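re: ur question from yesterday

yeah so i grabbed the chain u mentioned. its 154 aa long if i counted rite. heres the sequnce exactly as i have it in my notes:
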Amino acid sequence: MDKRTYPEAPIVGVGAAVFRNDTAFTGPPPLHRSSVLLIKRGKPPLTESWSLPGGRVNDGESLKEAAAREVKEECDIDVDVRDLVKLYEYIERDKDDAVKYHYIVFDFMAEYRSGELKALSDARDALWVDMGDLDRFDLTDAAREIIREGFVMR
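ran it thru and got these structure tokens back, copy pasting raw so excuse formatting
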């Protein structure tokens, strides 16, 4: 079992900016809207923050396989993992300046394929959020940037 707090080396992780076309709006493409999947984190670091689904890469697992698995484990949906959006490094230090968390996270753009969204495992909540409503959620600057860059790539 790996040591997630006070690790001896950085932990490799993945995240996914998952998009879907919202079919609640009818009419030609200008009336179709896109939404992105957000989860409320249930475990540290950043517990209770809204973020992207993701987690640690398992031994022998490709980055894209890990991203798809993490979305399935946290949200019970299937996705097609596409392109790498950004490589992100997260380091959190404690009051004594020791490294408490150190993750190197590969964030991907992904498209919703199927399944009924529900919060599972590490996610306390999971929502499809209209791209125009992102500012209503307490997201880190990094998560916002990954979502916006992923949306442009899409």
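noticed a couple things. The mean pLDDT is 90. also The first strand starts at residue 11 and ends at 22.
anyway ttyl
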